[in-house]
Design goal:
The structure is a homohexamer. By secondary structure, chain A is an all-alpha fold. Chain A contains 7 helices and no strands. In chain A, helix 6 runs antiparallel to helix 7. The N and C termini of chain A lie far apart (39 Å). At the A-B interface, helix 3, helix 4 and helix 6 of A face helix 3, helix 4 and helix 6 of B.
């Protein structure tokens, strides 16, 4: 399998079948090359690496994204973190690293996005 | 114990006796209140939290600091991560999250600082 | 009084009785520990410090938040700045520091948020 | 002509008559001095410089704004880039610089804003 | 007087005769247009504004620069803040806003630069 | 050729034979996987794209890096920009986009790094 196929498989496992198709279709509608590169590079080359387990990598990713205020990827990574086995409490603890080292306002902005993700996951 | 004493104890465990005294003395020489607040808040209130283990919290901290380019705290946290049980390979994997989500240049700048920390730890 | 009680009292003075209860309830609904730490650390340990008057501290806070683009805390701090005695013109001057030193787009994004705060404060 | 008049003329060429009046009126309603300084400095002193052509300057501006996540100015600069002769494909390539050097999430957030701009430009 | 002359006069008052000439010469040696624009825009158009006193504007500027980690301008603004009447204690309090709202590591990096400025000002 | 070989070839053209070998050796000494991913992703997948010419892509890259303050990659990209045909004046104009949209201090920090690059290139 090439990087793209590896990445697609990797995201499918972490995001779920329904959501990944919707997300990929949305990326492809705006900029097909972006969809291709995100899947191949972020999914196929980086998320497939070993060394630390998926849950830890998810918590680390959340920290990078919350520190930078990258809204769309942060929401996706909250979803993936839960799918990768992180509890809400563990996500909170990762975000307290953000509070200490990038300021409490960065954690606040992130919590608002986390709430949106949890609401969307809640059964109707 | 109050927050300050808890924080001092916590940092002592993570940084080692010699280094913590030198660091605290240096902070106190510049701005005694900063030394007090960092120890009480970052050490006593945040690092003493549970929920995720110390190694994971160190990797998350590295991600926040590398994404923001905060040099001094990044170097201290590389040191603490190793003391908290992170291998160099695990630190690399945390930094690959930074590469994917904050760009490869942020990982490059961080690796240069990691190298300085490893050199300082190497036996003469 | 401990840090939490000091912080709650401090925020109550700066935000007003109605708003602080709503804000604390909202924080607590998402992440009770975040509510506790923000009140104790940001409110109780940092906002209770002296050295410069509350209005100046509000203007400084706005500058940090606008430079970083932290939306939620920026809006709260616009509200607190007005309650701490800052005129709209003084807030504008603080934001011109942001324009010069973090770029005009950071001031633009902040002005949009300021407008929302002023609209919410306007009598119906 | 002074800086303000030069800037007004420059923005008029890049944004179009209708949009520039609406934008200036909106700035002036919030903070008249901001409107004056943005036009005089960003428009009159910086955008009137030569050295590299307008399209290249637009692509460079997009890169600065996407890397920093400055939403309002980013949307305006997407509009101006198209008016300055940049194709959507060229804007994508500029954004791939952001992906490589500030992370894929910065490009994602920018693409969402680009989509809004393109939708607003589309004939009904 | 035009913006440039106003800015040169303004910086001369805040930086001192000797330092401003050395700084301007150094800017001009690297990029004469940068020297001209910084003096005219930052000095002549922004620092000459009223509304809040110079000391408050200096503290606000320090907050923007420390939050963003802009080393060279931060050091210059520490110097100007002291010349504008800010005590070291007042600068510390401005930096505690940075600690609360952009994280303690941003204050740490700034304190290291402040120390360099104070050392350079100390009589031999 | 795979991504890595394409990237190595691409960097060789933009950096020069001597410098690229030294840089790759240095990356490999710190973290071989970083060397591999930077070459394959940044060099092989992103720099090999078409759409806009190499010089424009270099100017865009400089803008991303100066806005974020990423020192090591910024210096490398100044070097590559010159090799890709950008004149010093064109680099200045790209940096004036940074001044307008990320603040003059970001341009100042970048100019200091540009000066180091130009000094290193100057014949002895």
């Amino acid at each position: 399998m090439d990087d793209y196929d590896l990445g697609r498989e990797q995201f499918r496992k972490m995001v779920g079948d329904d959501k990944i198709d919707a997300l990929m279709a949305r990326f492809a509608a705006v900029c097909p090359d972006f969809q291709r590169e995100v899947v191949a590079v972020v999914g196929g080359r980086i998320w497939t690496r070993g060394g630390i387990d998926l849950k830890t990598r998810s918590l680390c990713s959340i920290c990078v994204l919350a520190a930078q205020g990258r809204t769309n990827a942060l929401k996706l990574n909250f979803d993936m973190a839960i799918n990768n086995g992180a509890s809400i409490e563990e996500i909170f603890e990762a975000l307290f690293r953000v509070a200490a080292y990038a300021g409490f306002p960065a954690m606040w902005d992130a919590l608002v996005k986390l709430e949106e993700v949890l609401d969307a996951r809640a059964p109707a």
